Amino acid sequence: MQTIGQALDRLERSAFRSRFRLSEKDRRYLEEKGPEVIRRHAEDFVRQKLAPAEPANDGRQTPMRGHPVFLAMHATACCCRGCLEKWYRVPKGRPLTESQQKKIVDLLMAWIERQKER
Questions:
Q1: For residue 23, with 0-12 CB atoms within 10 Å meaning exposed, 13-18 middle and 19 or more buried, which class applies?
Q2: Are the beta carbons of 63 and 4 closer than 8 angstroms?
């Protein structure tokens, strides 16, 4: 099993995933809300958009902008069940466990923190 750091390093080598960056607006939002609120948002988005066995509109359920977590979901290949299966071997067709959801949220938050440092 790969670590969060290894996953982020691998994602940075992807031409598509590496092009995602936080905007100044995203950075202000993160600063305004703080990490606890952003984590709660990430938990809610993962629970709603990824955790069901068959999410509504799978493959198109995560917007490309509008919230820093949405951007993080695309940058980390946690935007749909297809990407989760391709990048992390999380099989489609069954609900995500609490542990899997937590790992995804941890990855999203790590990507956000790494971006804030840039």
A1: exposed
A2: no
Instruction: Average the pLDDT over 91-111 and give the result.
Output: 97
Q: What is the pLDDT of residue 2?
A: 87
* The three-state (H, E, C) secondary structure of the chain, written as one string: CCCHHHHHHHHHCCCCHHHCCCCHHHHHHHHHHCHHHHHHHHHHHHHHHCCCCCCCCCCCCCCCCCCHHHHHHHHCCCCCHHHHHHHHCCCCCCCCCHHHHHHHHHHHHHHHHHHHCC
Which pair of structure tokens corresponds to residue 60? 């198109």
Q: Quick one: pLDDT at residue 87?
A: 96
pLDDT of residue 73: 97
